[in-house]
Amino acid sequence: MTTEAPRAPKIKLGQLAPGYLGDIGPEEFVEGMGFSELDLAEVDSTQATYLDCSLSRVNFGAAESPVDLTGVRFSGSKIEDCRADTWTMPRGSLIHTEISGTRIGAGVAHDSVWEKVVVNNCRISYLNLRAAKLSDVEFRDCVIDEIDLDRAQVSRVAFPGSTIGVLQCEGSRLGNVDLRGLQLHKISGVQSLRGATIDEAQMMIFAELFANELGIRVE
């Protein structure tokens, strides 16, 4: 059986109107705007919708005062060259969205929905995707210290050219998850990797990781 590749997002950004802090607020519907060089630390963006928007070189706030993105919906949008010490977006959604060149300290996105998303050339310390639903997602050329997919539903997800320090997947359900091209240093939840694809070279490299996780001693 051939592993299905993630389907690419469809993003068509036309002429964007300049976006300002005053355009952002709880439950706001923002369409066709470009936000650039802004500090969103003091903005409440809970339950807001960003449709066909661009966020470039935006600061999502320091760890002690992050912008609240709870329940936020991004669709047909691009997030480029941004910074977030803490990315707080539980129960949110990313649909037909690309995130590139962005530095995230702690990404809190549990119980979220990601559909047709590309995360490209990003540096992430910790990404919490517990109980999230991911389909058609590609982490391309990313460095992630730890990604938590415990109890997540993951379908058509790939990690080409990426490095992950710790992959947690306890109780997750995987389908067409392509780990080829991924450098991985530790796995928690090997028994949940059913449905993932690796190559022969990785099998040799991952053997020690599998043994350590399953408590097997190799002498």
Describe this structure in words.
This protein is 7% helix and 45% strand. It is mostly beta strands. The strands form 3 sheets. Strands 1, 2, 3, 4, 5, 8, 9, 11, 13, 15, 17, 19 and 21 form a 13-stranded parallel β-sheet that branches. Strands 10-12-14-16-18-20 form a 6-stranded parallel β-sheet. The protein is elongated and about 65 Å long.
Question: Could you give a quick summary of the protein structure above?
Answer:
The chain has 219 residues and is mainly beta. The chain has one helix and 21 strands. The strands form three sheets. Strands 1, 2, 3, 4, 5, 8, 9, 11, 13, 15, 17, 19 and 21 form a 13-stranded parallel beta sheet that branches. A six-stranded parallel beta sheet has the order 10-12-14-16-18-20.
Query: Which residues sit in consecutive blocks of at least 5 with pLDDT less than 50?
Result: none
Please tell me how large the radius of gyration is.
Answer: 18 Å
Largest sheet properties:
13 strands, parallel
What's the number of domains?
1
Overall mean pLDDT stands at 91
Structural class: mainly beta
How many individual helices?
A: 1
Shape: elongated
Overall helicity = under 10%
What CATH architecture do you see? 3 Solenoid
As for the CATH topology, it is: Pectate Lyase C-like
Tell me the number of strands: 21
The CATH superfamily label reads E3 ubiquitin-protein ligase SopA
**How do the SSEs run, as a string of H and E?**
EEEEEEEEEEEEEEEEEEEEEH
Reading off the top of the CATH hierarchy, the class is best stated as Mainly Beta
